[in-house]
Design goal:
about 350 residues, Beta-galactosidase, Chain A, domain 5, seven-stranded antiparallel β-sheet, globular
Length: about 350
């Protein structure tokens, strides 16, 4: 048993945030806060030297624990009406609520809503790992999310292990819902992707307010807007630009986000063989009806098993899911590294 640590890598699974059982791990560079009872969602990744949180918070904020499960709107409300921002595991259904296998899967599956059990694996002040383990119900899967910090490194290592508890082969539309907004990302922030990344817009308009891009494939960062005007996707546009959903196919599993307001870059790496697609969700404040009411400026750059964002049934039909045999386990790994740029104002 390790003695208590109050410096270096350290943490607790006894925290509470708005009534939710939570966990915190930190080192000299980063502090991570996870809502253990709400999908083991990441609601803070604070870069301590600049007091800068890389996650963002929606206007709805973190719902109080006693409002868990309350949804008053649509079939997708179970996720959206309590969406606080941050980062969530999405499985077995990526996209809106959908019928498959004789039942209805909620928007973005169950993994972002279930309660997890948490434990710490400390290695003195040199390393600490938070393990969160839970089980989905509609499609019984064991899900373990692990978060690790080492030394003074400004890098978070994430690992998700999924085990099929059923007696049949099951499909997974599986992604990591990595969303970015204020204070880290806003207009003028820029995205860096590997050369050769292809761009595939969603086949139809997602919101009644219209779409940013025409439904034409292109090569990053080039695209064409709905009026036929060339668009450079590298730099995030002004508030009020139309929303969209685009699927990117990079040849390598990494991207970088460069903040315009702060001298900070986040580099995200993931296993491209496991999740070959990157969903590029763009909400720039143009949706002035449900669910955003003109209040949110946020992007998602989300590694996924496929480029079908209309739900599990469509992803299965398009053969863009990960099939998991009875009793089998699969693992996805991610790394989020924070770099402070020199020479920035």
């Amino acid at each position: 048993m390790h003695p208590p640590v109050n410096a270096g890598c350290r943490g607790t699974v006894d925290a509470t945030l708005r009534g939710w059982r939570s966990a915190v791990i930190e080192n000299r560079a980063l502090r991570l806060t996870v809502l253990v009872e709400k999908g083991a969602s990441v609601v803070e990744l604070l870069y301590k030297p600049l007091d800068l949180d890389l996650t963002y918070r929606t206007l709805r904020d973190i719902p109080p624990r006693d409002q868990q499960g309350l949804s008053y709107s649509t079939a997708d409300g179970a996720f959206t009406d309590s969406y606080e921002g941050g980062w969530q595991e999405v499985l077995p259904n990526g996209g809106p609520a959908t019928e498959y296998g004789g039942t209805v899967f909620p928007q973005h599956g169950e993994s972002a809503a279930i309660s997890y059990a948490a434990r710490l694996d400390p290695s003195g002040p040199e390393s600490i790992t938070l393990h969160c383990a839970g089980q989905t119900s509609i499609l019984p899967l064991r899900v373990t999310r692990s978060f690790r910090l080492d030394g003074d490194d400004a890098a978070l290592l994430l690992e998700t292990e999924v085990t099929n508890l059923t007696a049949t082969r099951v499909p997974l539309s599986w992604g990591m819902h990595l969303a970015f907004g204020a204070p880290f990302v806003g207009p003028g922030a820029s995205i860096e992707l590997p050369a050769g990344t292809t761009v595939h817009p969603h086949p139809h308009t997602v919101y009644p307010s219209g779409r940013r891009l025409a439904a034409e494939d292109s090569l990053w960062p080039r695209a064409v807007d709905s009026a036929g005007t060339p668009v450079d996707l590298t730099v995030l546009p002004p508030r009020g630009t139309k929303s969209d959903l685009v699927y990117l196919r990079p040849p390598e599993g990494w991207y970088r986000l460069h903040s315009a307001a702060h001298p900070v870059t986040a580099e995200i790496e993931w296993d491209l063989a496991r999740q070959p697609c990157l969903w590029f969700w763009q909400e720039f404040g143009a949706v002035d009806t449900y669910p955003w009411w003109g209040s949110e400026y946020v992007i998602g750059l989300e590694p996924f098993t496929g480029s079908v964002g209309s739900g599990l049934a469509d992803a299965v039909a398009a053969q863009q899911v990960l099939w998991l045999e009875p009793g089998a386990t699969t693992t996805a790994r991610y790394r989020v590294a924070v770099q402070e740029r020199s020479g920035d104002a």
